Amino acid sequence: MKKRKKTDISAEIKQIKRLFLWAVVMALICAALTISVLFYYFVPRDRDTYILTVPAFVGLEQEDIGVCDGVEVTREWIYSDEVACGTVISQIPYAGARRKVHIGEVCPVTVYISLGEKTQRVPAIIGLDQLSAAAALRSIGVKVRSVAIYGDGEDGTVIDTSPRVDSDIKSGDTVTLFVSRRRVESPVNVPSFIGMEKSEAVRRALSLGLFIGYIEDFGKGSSVFAQSIPEGASVLRGSYISFKAGGEGDVGERPWPPIASN
Q1: Closest CA to 150 of 178, 183, 127, 126
Q2: Global confidence as pTM
Q3: What is the Cα–Cα distance from 95 to 35, expressed in whole angstroms?
Q4: Over the range 88-126, which residues count as b (16 or more CB within 10 Å of their CB) and which as e?
Q5: Residue 252's pLDDT band (cuts 50, 70, 90)
Q6: 209: phi > 0 → left, psi -120 to 50 → alpha, else beta; which?
Q7: How far is CA 187 from the centre of its chain?
Q8: What is the DSSP letter of 33?
Q9: Helices (H), 119-246
Q10: Beta strand pairing call for 107-114 and 71-78
Q11: Which of 73, 101, 172, 188 is most open to solvent, judged by the fewest CB atoms within 10 Å of its CB?
Q12: By the 8 A CB rule, do 225 and 252 touch?
């Protein structure tokens, strides 16, 4: 009886060991399957991708933008006051950026190319009144100055411009309007322009209805030291007056060259 009992206990122990081993094996199998599933769903698979470093395009001329492997370049044009026309100003993504690209696909890169400074054309304002012409110019961002031209044209209308109509201009440029003024056959008492700055003397003379013959510069300085029509003289509107400006000396004794009559 004792021998049978020992034999039964030994068999049971062996059976328990086999069951334990099977349990361990099944546990390992389940763990391996679980890890495989987690790896499949949560760990990125990079076998079909690669890392691309975005090349630098900024500073290149438009014609120097070549074909780059893995990159598709889109061009956009914008105005720039600082970068020469045809040069790349910026890019998106920036140079050196790293992008994951699938094999067979490309990384899009947008480059912005300079159109240079924005220019416009002087509009057709000949024949308009001075206020309307000035408003049309200011609406496109340019400055306006006016010069009276005495003649037979309709009073207050624009008869010419500088730069001329249809010329290219930039924002902030100045356009001069030449405005017709009817000649008034009345005398003008010429004041003294001595000591005035050249620009001030010109404005003063034009406001009196006088034409500017020429301004002769001598040395440094910009103050008027001689005028072709003496102070106090009575002349008709539309007469020409000339100035000498700059360094004074014996140059004031030089004769005044003749000015063609209007």
Answers
A1: 183
A2: 0.43
A3: 39
A4: bbbbeeeeeeebeeeeeeebebebbbbebbeeeebbebb
A5: very low
A6: left
A7: 51
A8: H
A9: 130-138, 198-207
A10: parallel
A11: 172
A12: yes
Distances (CA, A) of 16 to 9, 12, 180: 11, 6, 121
Structure tokens at 24: 């361990």
Q: Positive or negative CA dihedral for 51, 53, 97, 85?
A: negative
Element (DSSP H or E) covering residue 188: strand 187-189
What are 175's two structure tokens?
A: 């356009």
- Which amino acid belongs to residue 24? V
Assess contact for 243 and 213: CB atoms under 8 A.
Answer: no
Q: Which of 153, 199, 158 is nearest to 175 (CA)?
A: 158
Q: Can you read off the two tokens belonging to residue 152?
A: 């037979």
Share in percent of the chain as helix, strand, coil (round to 5): 25, 35, 40
More confident residue, 22 or 153: 22
CA–CA separation, 215 vs 230, rounded Å? 15
CA dihedral of residues 64, 70, 74, 75 (deg, nearest 10): -10
Pairing of the two strands 88-92 and 49-53? unpaired
Q: 3-class DSSP state for residue 134?
A: helix
Question: One-letter amino acid identity for 4?
Answer: R
